[in-house]
Design a protein that fits this description.
79% helix; mainly alpha; globular
Length: 464
Amino acid sequence: MENSGPSFAFYCVAIYLVFISVLGVYLAKRVKNQEDYAVAGRSLPVYVLVGTLIATWMGAGTVMGGANSLGYQFGFGVAIAFSLASPIGQLILTFISKKIRRQNAQTVPEVIEKVYGAEARFISTIIILLAYLGVVAYQFLGVGTLLQSTLGISVETGTIIAFVVIIATSLFGGLYSVAYTDFISCLMIMVGLLIGVPLAVCNAGGFSAVIARLPEGHMGFGNLSFVQVLGFFLPTFVYLMGDQNMYQRFFAAKDEDTALKGGLWWSLLTLLIGIIVSIAAITSRALYPDIKPAQAFIYLAQHGMPMFIGGISVAAVAAFIVTTANSFLLSIGVSTSWDLYARYFDRNADQKKMLKVSRICVLGLGVLGYIMIKYFPNILALQMYAYTMYGAAISPALVAAVVCPERVTKLGGLGSMVAGGVVTLVMEVLKKQGWGFAVTYPSVLPAVICSILVLCLFQKRSAA
C-alpha cells in the first residue's frame, strides 16, 4: 500500500515542533516566581497531570528502544514483561502519591535532605545531574536523526532544530510550558498509537496473519532466560521509583486527591501504551524482518499505515523525544539552582532571583548537552550505567524517606546511597572482565539488594 512518505511525515513533525514551541513561549506569561517555574504553582489539574506524566515517562526509548526493540528482536513476551515494569512501579508511586504531594518540595534532593541531611542532598543532586544530562543530550540527537529520516537534512542541522525547540519549551515557561505542551503531545501520541497500530495490523491481514509470519517462539520469550528478562525489567522499575521528573509532577498537582487520580490514570494508560507498542513491534517484525530493531515503529508508521495516520504517528515519535528532553532539562536546571546554588551559595536569594538563576541553569545545561552530543558522543554509552546507578543509589533511600521517615537514619540513608552506587560500579567492572556472576546477573539486582540491606541495617529500632 502507499505510505506517508518522507515529505508528508516531515510536515507533520514540523507543524508539531513549531506549535509546541510557540505554545511553550506563550505559556511563559504565567510564570511569576520560582515555584511557578519549578512546579507550575502547584496548580496542575488531573487531565494535565496525566498528560505530562505519560509524555514525560514515555520517551524515545518507548518507540526506539524498550518494548519496541525487545519485541522486534526477542519476542512479544519479552516486550510485555518489560512494559509491566512501568505500570507496576507507577501503581506503587500512586499509592504514596499523597505523601509525595505532602512534602511540598520542588526536587528529590530537597526531600532527601529533610531525612538524611545536607550531605545526602549534595550526593543525590550530583547523581541526578550525571544521569539526566546524558538523557537530554541523547534526545537532541534523537530529534536530529528523526528529521534526517523525514526531511533528508543533516543530523547536525536537525540537532540544532531540536535544541531550539527543547529550549523554547523549557527555558521560558518552566513546568507550566512543559506540562501543558506535554498534554498536547500526549493526545497526539494516543491518537497515533490507538488508531495507527490497529490499522497497521489490519493492513497486514489481521493479528493471526502477523503471528503466522513471525519466527518460531516469537510470541513468547525467544531464547532469553528468566534472569535475562529480569535484567530488562528491574532497571526500569527501580529507576521509576525514584525518578525526579515523576516526583516533581506530583509536587505540582493541585492537591493530594489530584495526585492520586492522576497517578491511577497514568499507570492504566501506560500499560495500554506498552501493549500497543509491543504489538507494533511484532507486526513490524512480521512485515519487515530485515530492518534494525530501533527502526521498527517508525518504519511501520511510514510503510504500514495510511498516509495521514502514519504522519501523525511519526510526529508522535518526535513528541515522545521532545517531551522527555524538555522535562529532563527542566528537572536538572531546577535541581542545580535549588539544590546547589540556593543551598550552598546564596541561601537568601528571593523568588525572582531564583527564577532568573533557574533559567540560566536550564540554558547553560542545554548548551552543555548540545556540546556533549556534538563533540563527545561516546559519553552517552554511560547513560544506562547512570540509570542503574540512579535506581540503586537514589530510589530505596528516597522511597523510605517518603513512606517511613520516622524509621530511617542519616547513616542508613547515606550508606544506602553509597552501597547502591559502589556495587553498581563494581558489577559493571566485573562484567567488562567477563566474570560469570556479573555477566549472568543484571547489575541492578545486587546493587538494589545491598542498598536496601544497608538502609534496613541502620534503621531506628522500635522501643519494645
